[in-house]
């Protein structure tokens, strides 16, 4: 088994979206200045011997982001050759070779290229799929990170969805690889990926259930961009317990400092 971490470009946003109140005021500093920071966009590919499993698919640079929209709270910066297809091609993998795609959630920086994986079982939480599809159907998306164009593309592609029921934590995919249902928090429901590797040890990918190490603490610190803050804390506690039980290294969703320490493709963990 080989685990590749893919570098799919970067986004920028106000740091308080990642950790609420990180630049809070004080008597001494009554008008703190917002900090505009870079965050990595990442995915993971597992070569499990009989096929490939992908965790998240990155931003769709061509159709979803308007480069000159100066009011966007989170611009994406990436080159064409840094997107998911060329990254996979460099490893000798075509989208049709991927048998499973585990989607952490359906925000545009994770689901932008999901429509390419027509041969795959697409695994995510039932609640994330159902609630975001409901918003899509009602034309109810606001200016947030779900994009109509992504959902249109999911439907046109006729994807093979496999939905994890609410309350079911583990979903075994192949031996040593599980989707882990972290529940509600950042969005309607977040799904992680757990991978057991004999040499490198176990990994637990959290995506945006924990943006950065500061969110886990202790103490747990909620992000500014959040769907349900009370459930977020429960979800973070579940992750902490799961990682402790499995002795897994936690890979945060958008942690620039941690990302700089990781081996990215073509290097791999095994
Ligand atoms: Zn994200």
Lateral arrangement of strands in the main beta sheet: 4-1-2-3-5-6-7
Q: What's the β-strand tally?
A: 12
Gross morphology is globular
Radius of gyration over C-alpha positions, nearest whole angstrom: 18 Å
CATH fold name, please? Metallo-beta-lactamase, Chain A
CATH architecture: 4-Layer Sandwich
What would you say this structure looks like, in words?
By secondary structure, the chain is an alpha/beta fold. It has a single domain (2-22, 33-261), classed as Ribonuclease Z/Hydroxyacylglutathione hydrolase-like (Metallo-beta-lactamase, Chain A), CATH 3.60.15. Helices cover 23% and strands 28% of the residues. The strands form 2 sheets. A 7-stranded mixed β-sheet has the order 4-1-2-3-5-6-7. A 5-stranded mixed β-sheet has the order 8-9-10-11-12, with helices on one face. The longest helix is centred in the C-terminal third of the chain and has 18 residues, at 229-246. The structure holds zinc ion.
């Amino acid at each position: 088994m080989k685990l590749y971490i893919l570098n799919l470009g970067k986004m920028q946003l106000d740091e308080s979206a990642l950790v609420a109140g990180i630049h809070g005021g004080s008597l001494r500093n009554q008008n703190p200045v917002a900090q505009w920071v870079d965050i990595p966009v990442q995915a993971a590919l597992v070569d499990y011997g009989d096929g490939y499993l992908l965790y998240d698919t990155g931003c769709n640079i061509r159709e979803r982001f308007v480069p000159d929209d100066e009011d966007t709270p989170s611009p994406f910066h990436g080159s064409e050759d840094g997107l998911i297809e060329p990254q996979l091609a460099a490893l000798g993998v075509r989208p049709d070779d991927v048998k499973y795609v585990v989607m952490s959630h359906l925000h545009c920086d994770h689901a932008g290229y999901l429509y390419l994986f027509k041969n795959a079982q697409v695994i995510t939480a039932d609640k994330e799929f159902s609630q975001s599809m409901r918003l899509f159907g009602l034309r109810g998306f606001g200016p947030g990170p779900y994009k109509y164009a992504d959902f249109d593309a999911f439907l046109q592609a006729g994807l093979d969805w496999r939905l994890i029921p609410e309350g079911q934590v583990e979903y075994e995919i192949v031996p040593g690889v599980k989707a882990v249902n972290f529940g509600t928090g950042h969005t309607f429901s977040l799904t992680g990926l757990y991978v057991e590797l004999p040499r490198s040890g176990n990994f637990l990918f959290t995506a945006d259930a924990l943006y950065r190490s500061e969110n886990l603490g202790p103490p747990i610190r909620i992000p500014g961009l959040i769907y349900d803050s009370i459930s977020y804390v429960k979800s973070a506690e579940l992750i902490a317990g799961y990682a402790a039980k499995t002795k897994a290294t936690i890979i945060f969703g958008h942690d620039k400092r941690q990302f700089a320490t990781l081996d990215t493709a073509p290097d791999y963990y095994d």
